[in-house]
Design a protein that fits this description.
Length: 124
């Protein structure tokens, strides 16, 4: 179950206006994300790291930004981006486990794309 803490009626990614602030290092990856990215030809050592504290698998840092961010701030794996990136403009605030997993999301603060673009419930 996905519980969204605030509704975002319209949204369009305006990453050039905010310097792509969502594309920070350490984006968590699912196993499906890793398989999809590996199929693009990347070696695991290129982009993958494991957080020591919780063994979370995540994207490596490259010059203080996400490994996959291009020189013009674009996502270089746009059609294969990780699940967390597909949830934008929402960020996961909490995941809890009851009879089924409950994921709580809230919108990214000060997102310049909020309120513009097509009526949407998500990025894709
Ligand atoms: S994978 Fe793409 S969308 Fe996700 S943080 Fe990295 S550059 Fe941004």
């Amino acid at each position: 179950m996905i519980h969204i803490l605030e509704n975002v009626d319209r949204w369009k990614c305006e990453y050039k206006k905010c310097n792509a602030k969502c594309c920070t290092p350490g984006i968590p990856l699912t196993i499906a994300d890793i398989k999809r990215i590996k199929a693009l030809g990347y070696a695991l050592d290129d982009f993958l790291e494991s957080a020591e504290a919780n063994q979370e698998l995540r994207i490596k840092d490259k010059n203080g930004r996400c490994f996959f961010q291009g020189e013009k701030l674009e996502c270089t794996i746009r059609e294969n981006e990780p699940l967390v990136c597909r949830l934008l403009p929402f960020k996961i605030t909490e995941v809890s486990y009851a009879d089924e997993p409950i994921m709580r999301l809230k919108p990214v603060v000060d997102c310049p794309g909020k309120g513009s673009g097509k009526k949407s419930t998500g990025r894709k």
